[in-house]
Each structure stands twice: as C-alpha cells, then as structure tokens.
Amino acid sequence: MSKFPGLTISCPLFFNKDETIDLKTLGCYLDDVCKNKSISAVYSMAYNTRYRMLRDEELLRVNEFVINKVKSYGHNVYVGHPYVFTRSSLEEYLTAVASLKPSGVSMLYPERYYGLDDIIIEFLRSPLRHGIDVVLHEMKLVSGFDGSLVDWPISLIEKVFEEVPLVAVKEDSKSDEIASKVMELCLREDVHFVLAGGGKLRALGFLEKGMTTWLNGSTMFIPQLIDRTYKAFVMGDEQYQSRYLDKIEKPFFEGVVSKHGWHLAHKAALEFFGYGQRWERFPHARMSESSFEEIRPILEDISAAAEWL
Fold first, then answer.
1. How far is CA 235 from CA 230, 291, 305, in A?
2. Backbone phi, then psi, for 225, in 5-degree steps?
3. Sorting pLDDT into bands at 50, 70 and 90, what band is 4?
4. Quick check: 59 pLDDT over 90?
5. What is the predicted pLDDT for the residue at 296?
6. What is the pTM of this model?
7. Cα(20)–Cα(16) distance, rounded to whole angstroms?
8. What pLDDT score was predicted for residue 309?
9. What is the DSSP string of 240-303?
10. What phi and psi values does residue 39 have, to the nearest 5 degrees?
11. pLDDT at 300 over 70
12. So where are the chain's domains?
C-alpha cells in the first residue's frame, strides 16, 4: 500500500427530469475527478450512487460505465451489488462484473442481524468465487430483534478480517471507538481504511494515527481541489487546512447538510457547481426550489473561496 494513496471518491448518480439516467453528466463529472492524481479509488456505492432506485440491468450498465471510465485514467474503482437480490441473481451479477475487472466489489449486508455471523461471512465471501477483491461496507446493522440500528460487534469485525480477504473497508459506523479498532486491523493486514462521516476535521484525528485515505465529502462537488486538499491534509499544511475548514467544510456541513441532510445537500451542490440537476428517481426526495435558493448564498461563498484556495 502506498503511503499516501489519495482520497476515496464517492460516485454520485445523475438523473434527467424524466427519471432516465444521465450518463452524459456522469461522464463529464468523472472526467473532472479522474484528472486528479491523489485518488485511492473511485467508489460507486449503495446510497450516493442510488442503487435502490435502479433495476439490476441498469446498475450493471452504470457500473460498467464507471469502471471503464475510471480505469481509462489508470485509477482504482470499487463498485457495489444490487440492494435486493437472491443467491442466484447475486451470482449472475458478480459473474458479469468480474469480466469488467473492478478493483473490488463493495459488500453491504442488507438483511437484519440476529447475532449469527456465518451468513454474513458467507455473503461477504461471494466475490471471491469470481476472482474479485472484497470491499467491506461496514455501516450499522439492523437488529432482527427490535429493528434498531446496531454497531458491528468487534468480534464479528475480527472474524471478517480472519476469514475474508479484504482490499478495503468503508468504515461507516460514525463511532470513533469502532473506527479506531477497524483502522488498527486495516493497518495490520495492509487493507485500505476508508473513513466515512464527520468531514475533514474528523479525518485529521485519524491521519495522526496512520490513516491514508478517507471518503472525499465536500470535494465531491469541487473536484478541482482534490489534489491540493489531499496533499494539504496529509502533509500538515495548517494554513490551507484552516482556510478549507472555515470557508468550505463548515459552511457546507453546518449551513446546508445539517438542515437538509447529506443526500439532498450534495445533489444541490453538484447542480450549483455545474454537474447536472438535482432530479431524482421516485421515491427519492430532492431539495425544493425555495430551499435551493436559500442555500445559494452559501454555495456562492464556497465557490468564491475555492477560487483562491
């Protein structure tokens, strides 16, 4: 593993007004992203890439497009699997994806958790039968007892590291305690640890402990800053870090995300910065026109700040 592999870039998905997939905008967006060098991987994932809104054949078409585009620039690329599947349909999907040679398939356990680990291990090992590396998407499980969201038990995480060869972990628990344990395991096993949530201020704390990549967050809508921002944060450029946090990170998360949620906020920001429109496919919500106008001054300030960073 290289010492400073770059950011892990979350891949959005764009729709037209008639709810068809806007591959043209996605291609332009990926071109702007992939011009950067500080990229660990581009990551097509369950929620930001709107897997729940897609039929299986659409998901395969989108991920084929993403894989081919990203690989043409020489970057790594992770893709996921359909959110709803049977054993046979998952195998069929993985067979098709294997021919595209992604850098890993992100595995997100979609069912309720009853404290039984073997089915999760079997599920996570599915890509290995097709010669594909595994990316663990470790976010809260849904309890099979009361429907609450529960953290992965540390014993289960340790079992995964013992029984499933991993290329990366998207650590999405939002718990610093769990994230620290997962990062220890990743560093020991030479697995990419991808921190998700909390922005770059949280990332700074994990960089001090040896983290080398994290999910890109606010640079999602200003990809021209990926190289500069990554280098500044890993190399300890405190002046740049302070400006970025004060002028871009905090205004976006405190002024937009906190009021509208990540998924509505990032699509609105992408539209403002010239990447498609905030159309979604039913039944996904989208930010209203009045709310979009309310956040416009914040995005204008962020745009101005990005010009001189």
1. 8, 37, 21
2. -100, 5
3. low
4. yes
5. 98
6. 0.96
7. 5
8. 87
9. HHHHHIIIIIHHHIIIIIHHH-HHHHHHHHHHHTTS------TT-----HHHHHHHHHHHHHHH
10. -130, 120
11. yes
12. 7-234
Q: What is the pLDDT of residues 136-155, one digit of tens each?
A: 999 999 999 999 999 999 99
pLDDT tens column, 95-123: 999 999 999 999 999 999 999 999 999 99
CA distance 129 to 127: 5
Mean pLDDT of the chain: 97
Residue 140 DSSP one-character state: P
112-113: strand order across its sheet: 112-113, 141-143, 149-150
Residue type, 130: H
Paired tokens of 120: 């999760």
How many CA atoms lie within 13 Å of 220's alpha carbon, on the beta-carbon side? 31
Any idea how long the chain is? 309
Q: Cα–Cα distance between 137 and 140 in angstroms, integer?
A: 10
| Arithmetic mean of pLDDT, 29-56 | 97
What are the distances in angstroms from CA 159 to CA 181, 182, 193?
13, 12, 17
pLDDT at 2: 57
Q: Is the bond into 12 cis (omega within 30 degrees of 0)?
A: no
CATH superfamily of the 7-234 domain: Aldolase class I (3.20.20.70)
**H-type alpha helices, the chain:** 23-34, 56-72, 87-98, 118-124, 154-163, 176-189, 199-207, 226-234, 238-244, 250-252, 258-260, 262-272, 289-308
Its sign, for the CA torsion 248, 242, 44, 159, is negative
